């Protein structure tokens, strides 16, 4: 006789089966979740690794072959075409004026004197300054061509800063010429001979190369990793080193040495020359002679003023005018380089009788042809 199974025993079997199914489902869900989490973590790791690799490649490219973006006239980008008209006219005046002075000095035998040799050097440096910045400025205004490579930037800075140093040296030589002519006129021809003028010109070129070349060679090892946007329409050394992420102390020290050996030496020499000239002129008895001497010096004083005043103003704006609008920085930078080449030919044509006569005779001869 079979024994009847208690009803509760069947219920226990069912409950145990349900519990086993629950455990199995939990295990499966946990395994799936862990698998998905692991896959997601691996994907995140791979993405981060790829991003880091891309950043490293981009950083290496930026540091090895950096390209800079030059600035036009900030805030007036839509009017660049119209702004290019006065800029083009100023460049044309600078090129034609300085070229004309060079031509009349070379072709007129009466102007083959030390004073005019130095004036021809001044015109040559003004032409160099104009040509070295004209291409990038007009390219931005006409075609919005703002990109420039590091090598092209270094080449432009070599000519820009090189001609600036040369012009400062020429102004010192012209001040010395005026000092000898006024304070020691009897020895003028023996002191400032043609060979000595050539030596002085050669010394200016050598000084310019020796001071500027190391300054620019120190730029090559620098690491650039920031947004390489310059604040001028040409490459300017203080602007470029601001964008470097590596140590620029050597560049700053070299720049300071260059500043001391150029402006720090040339400016006192010019001031001393004119102090001695003024003392000599005031000792003259005749007011007419005093007026004549001061008149011959006015053109050189004007050249010194239009060269150093914009330079010092730009330095002050860079150092203390951080809150000034960007358009102020841009306009000051363009005035600094455009003012001397544009005004020097005008000043010397108006104030120097021999230059004025030579230019008028050239223009009349051209008109008669």
TrEMBL record:
Q: Name one GO molecular function term.
A: olfactory receptor activity
Report the membrane topology from the UniProt record.
Multi-pass membrane protein
Note the superkingdom of the native organism: Eukaryota
Q: What is a single cellular component term in the Gene Ontology annotation?
A: plasma membrane
> What sections of the protein cross the membrane?
57-76, 82-106, 118-142, 154-176, 197-219, 259-281, 293-311, 331-350
Q: Which CDD domains match?
A: 7tmA_OR51-like
- The G-protein coupled receptors family 1 profile domain sits at 97-348
Coiled coil spans = none
Subcellular localization: Cell membrane; Membrane
InterPro entries assigned to the protein according to its UniProt record, in alphabetical order: GPCR_Rhodpsn, GPCR_Rhodpsn_7TM, Olfact_rcpt, OR51/52/56-like
GO:BP terms for this protein? Answer: cellular response to lipid
Instruction: Tell me, in one coarse class, where this protein mainly resides.
Output: membrane
Its keywords, alphabetically, are:
Cell membrane, G-protein coupled receptor, Membrane, Olfaction, Receptor, Sensory transduction, Transducer, Transmembrane, Transmembrane helix
What role does it play?
Answer: Putative odorant or sperm cell receptor.
Homology family: Belongs to the G-protein coupled receptor 1 family.
Q: What name does this protein carry?
A: Olfactory receptor
Q: What is the lineage of its organism?
A: Eukaryota, Metazoa, Chordata, Craniata, Vertebrata
């Amino acid at each position: 006789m079979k024994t009847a199974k208690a009803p509760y025993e069947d219920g226990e079997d069912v409950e145990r089966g349900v519990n086993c199914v629950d455990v199995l489902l939990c295990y499966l869900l946990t395994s799936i979740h862990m698998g998905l989490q692991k896959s997601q973590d691996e994907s995140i790791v791979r993405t981060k690794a790829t991003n880091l690799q891309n950043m490293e490649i981009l950083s290496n490219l930026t540091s090895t072959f950096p390209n800079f973006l030059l600035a036009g006239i900030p805030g007036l980008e839509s009017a660049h075409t119209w702004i290019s008209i006065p800029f083009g006219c100023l460049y044309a005046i600078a090129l034609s004026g300085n070229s004309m002075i060079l031509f009349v000095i070379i072709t007129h035998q009466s102007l083959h004197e030390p004073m005019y040799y130095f004036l021809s050097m001044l015109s040559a440096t003004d032409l160099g300054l104009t040509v070295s910045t004209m291409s990038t400025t007009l390219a931005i205004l006409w075609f919005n061509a703002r990109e420039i490579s590091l090598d092209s930037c270094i080449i432009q800075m070599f000519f820009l800063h090189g001609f600036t140093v040369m012009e400062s040296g020429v102004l010192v030589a012209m001040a010395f010429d005026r000092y000898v002519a006024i304070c020691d006129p009897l020895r003028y021809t023996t002191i400032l001979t043609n060979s000595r003028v050539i030596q002085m010109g050669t010394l200016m070129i050598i000084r310019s190369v020796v001071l500027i070349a190391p300054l620019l060679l120190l730029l090559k090892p620098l690491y650039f990793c920031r947004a390489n946007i310059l604040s001028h329409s040409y490459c300017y050394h203080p602007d470029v080193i601001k964008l470097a992420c590596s140590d620029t102390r050597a560049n700053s020290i070299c720049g300071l040495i260059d500043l001391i050996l150029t402006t720090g030496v040339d400016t006192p020499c010019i001031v001393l020359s004119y102090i001695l000239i003024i003392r000599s002129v005031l000792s003259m008895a005749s007011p007419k002679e005093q007026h004549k001497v001061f008149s011959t010096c006015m053109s050189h004083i004007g050249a010194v003023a239009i060269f150093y005043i914009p330079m010092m103003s730009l330095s002050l704006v860079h150092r203390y005018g951080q809150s000034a609008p960007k358009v102020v920085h841009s306009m000051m930078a363009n005035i600094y380089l455009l003012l001397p080449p544009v005004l020097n030919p005008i000043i010397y044509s108006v104030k120097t009788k021999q230059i004025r006569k030579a230019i008028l005779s050239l223009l009349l001869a051209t008109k008669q042809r």
